[in-house]
Amino acid sequence: xxxxxxxxxxxxxxxxxxxxxxxxxxxxxxxxxxxxxxxxxxxxxxxxxxxxxxxxxxxxxxxxxxxxxxxxxxxxxxxxxxxxxxxxxxxxxxxxxxxxxxxxxxxxxxxxxxxxx
RNA sequence: AGGAUGGGCCGGGCCGCCGCUGGGUAACCAGAGGAAAGUCCGGGCUCCGCAGGGGAUGAUGCCGGGUAACACCCGGGCGCUUCAUUACGAAGUGACAGCCAGUGCCGCAGAAAAGAUACCGCCAUUGAAAAAUGGUAAGGGUGAAAAGGCGAGGUAAGAGCUCACCGGGCCGGUCGGUAACGUCGGCCGCAAGGUAAACCUCAUCAGGAGCAAGAUCAAGCAGUGGAUGGGUGCCCUGCCCGAUAUCCACGGGUAGAUCGCUUAUGAUUCCGCCGGUAACAGCGGGACCAGAUAGAUGGCGGCCGUAAACAGAACCCGGCUUACCGGCCCGUCCUUUUU
RNA sequence: GGCGCCGUACCCAAGAGGCUAAGGGAGUGGAUUGCAAAUCCAUGAUUCAGCGGUUCGAGUCCGCUCGGCGCCU
Length: 117
Known about the structure:
The chain is α+β, with helices and mostly antiparallel strands. Helices cover 40% and strands 21% of the residues. It has a four-stranded mixed beta sheet with strand order 1-2-4-3, with helices on both faces. A hairpin with a 2-residue loop joins strand 1 (26-30) and strand 2. Helix 2 (58-75) crosses helix 3 (96-110). It binds two RNA strands through residues 2-7, 10-17, 48-50, 57-63, 65-67, 69-71, 73-74, 96.
């Protein structure tokens, strides 16, 4: 699988976000971040990052979003397909390594196998 | 060499791998800032039928120039502050029009706060004294501010009452300067404080709203009641439209796409020449330089010095203001060392 | 992205150039009560979000900055 993150692999419309947040199949959380996901009925997974209102200035917000997109891009071949995943970030200063630990923690707590049944 | 201070400039680079956005069939090419920020001013652009007249309101406010325009920039004048003084000055800074057009305000204190007044005091007269009457505005005291300052003459004591110097006002010059203003000469003893970031006056400028403007397509829904007026998001006027109409209120529906939007010919940018003290303008040549829409520049490794501060375009420009690691250059001052 | 409004004690707030910055609630201390509630009395702003300017004097007027809230598709 390509380690890409093209436009079709990202959640883009307001309706998509509303659908996932309204009735998520999976929730998990850790310090500074939260994950919600819902099966999308597609072959591929889709991904998005969103930030709470009080998260820093524009540069900090963009940086945090980029870092999480990068982590997803590098690890998505290990994730189950067919899910819309949204990560919500709360205010806090983390570097790339710490974000990576956050993401693996979120995935481990999510328990995709449970949700399938 | 070190330190302090003022001003200006720069705002990481290179290589490899994995990714993102735009253009292109593709190879490939391009891809955030000096502040992109705050949204404080000024424009372009779009819509409101026209952007007319008057008022209200707001803004600006020494003079000249620059500019599309400005509250910006440049040059000059004047005032203030600091430094330096033999002197020429140097640097910084100023919402820098008008309180003899009018009105308001100036708490407390003080005798008196504005066409004023006399508490203490000083002097004269009366009186045994206390004190009274008159003169006075030098001195004391109050206050942010007390009706030019200081010295001499003068006087009963005093006072621009008189005089010199300084300050101020008015008038004038075949004076310098486009002008603000300066300068010189003459006259006036100088009759009235401060505050317009108080109302206001004068002059100049401004119609309103903003790309979520505005245009098109698609999807979807349910009407009901009311008014005669509505059309510029301050008002009047003028003008235009109007009962198959228009507007208002309540209720219902939508939350998608495309254009605007950036392959752009521009108040663009780079280089050269030339005019100007300068801001800037003119001419010639070259370049085409982000265009996202859950919102594109990141991650990892290596090197250069350890790569970091403030910080991310959202229609586009010109300014102002604010934030900022580190480095470089220039001016001024201080200390130390060497010649 | 654009437009607008607000900031005064722990909370709600009045004051709109002048003497010591109203008032209510809550809190604290006291009185009252066997104990409590209610009631009564007392009590706090080294300065009005911060910085600078105008003024003799600023919470008030004028700039800049910070924070909060609302509206526009």
